[in-house]
Amino acid sequence: MSAALPPRAENKVESVSVIIPLLNEEESVDLLVNRLQAVADSLAYGFEFLFVDDGSSDATLARLLARQAEDSRIVVLELTRNWGHQNAFNAGLDHAHGDLLILMDGDLEDPPELIPELLAKWREGYPVVFTVKESRVQGRLRHFLTLVYYRLVRATSSVELVEQAGMFSLLDHNAAQHLRALRERNKSYPMLRSFLGYRQASIKYHRPQRAHGRPRQTLKKLLSDGLNALFSFSLVPIRLFTVIGFGLTLIFALLSVIILFVRITGTGFWIFYNVPGSAMAVILMLTIASFQITFTGILGEYIGRIYDEVRGRPYYLVAAIHRRPAAGGRSPPAVAGSDPVATEPSIHHRPSSPQDLPHD
Fold it and tell me: Which of 23, 163, 152 is nearest to 88 (CA)?
């Protein structure tokens, strides 16, 4: 990491938006809110707790609205259906009002008690602060796949990814605005954080077991997120098969010459004795076909992502924004990409270009 910068002068109290997607977390809502409130009450910042209900089918939304009646800092973004973990973060990012944004999961595997440490690192002058999991509670298969994912992405990506770095992070105003301006649909936030190029600091922590129930991130969803990170930041898979293709062309050309020589002259050497022409042809055809199928699948991953972008469909839809006005009946000012009208449906919005971003 870079050397620590001089402490940032604070001439006002900044506001902090904590963005938390939830999917069927009714058992964890009360404990999560209580811990967030305890942390926020101990700090001299204005807080917004922005919960994104990602199409929950249980009482998650009802529990959030009940807690909102007691605390006006709670804002609930109700999506029309389950749009996925990353897209729920997209929705929260677009609708947050804080000067600083904190992204975290809502199953309490990301402990709210780390928020003061994130803010302390930001005060040292780091626009981006992220967390790194020193240890975590995982099954053997999931642990193995996680290690493979990080090693593969680090080996192939053009952007540096710190191993075991996840979503739990802090972004200052400028970093958040530039992150909003990135238009791709299949986002990998840990990779995009690094792509922005801001000075970053990390905080290591032990990731505890989720508070209730089973993980919502299935192996299928984790695989999808991993492929997004791999194919969004690397051309290595497709270039690798280009190299393999050239290599196989040379090898098969050489084999063809050797086999033709043996068949015509009857002279054999090494493994090339009495080579049956039909058997060798079948082996060569199957080998080439296997590489073609694999390459077609990799090519399809890139083409599918291009198609996803070209369609231009929204990556989330908001059914309602539940917000209690702050004292005096005033709501916080809207930021680019947000819908300031409470309870009205909205579609995602993004700045059309980096030039549209506000300048300090």
Answer: 23
Residue 288's SS3 state is helix
How confident is the model at residue 169, as a pLDDT? 96
* Gap between the Cα atoms of 47 and 173, Å rounded: 15
Separation CA 155–CA 236 (nearest Å): 9
Contact 79, 319 (CB under 8 A): yes
Helix residue spans in the chain (DSSP H): 29-41, 60-68, 85-95, 115-123, 140-156, 173-181, 189-196, 219-232, 236-265, 277-311
Please report the pLDDT score of residue 192 as a whole number: 86
Would you give the DSSP letter of residue 113? G
Pair 340, 215: CB distance under 8 Å: no
**Residue written as tokens 């991953």?**
301
Q: What is the pLDDT of residue 34?
A: 97
193-242 pLDDT, tens per residue?
A: 888 989 999 999 988 776 666 665 566 666 666 666 666 666 677 767 77
Q: 77, 65 in Cβ contact below 8 A?
A: no
Q: Which parts of the chain register pLDDT below 50?
A: 1-11, 328-360
Write down the architecture of domain 15-138+165-216+314-356 according to CATH: Alpha-Beta Complex (3.90)
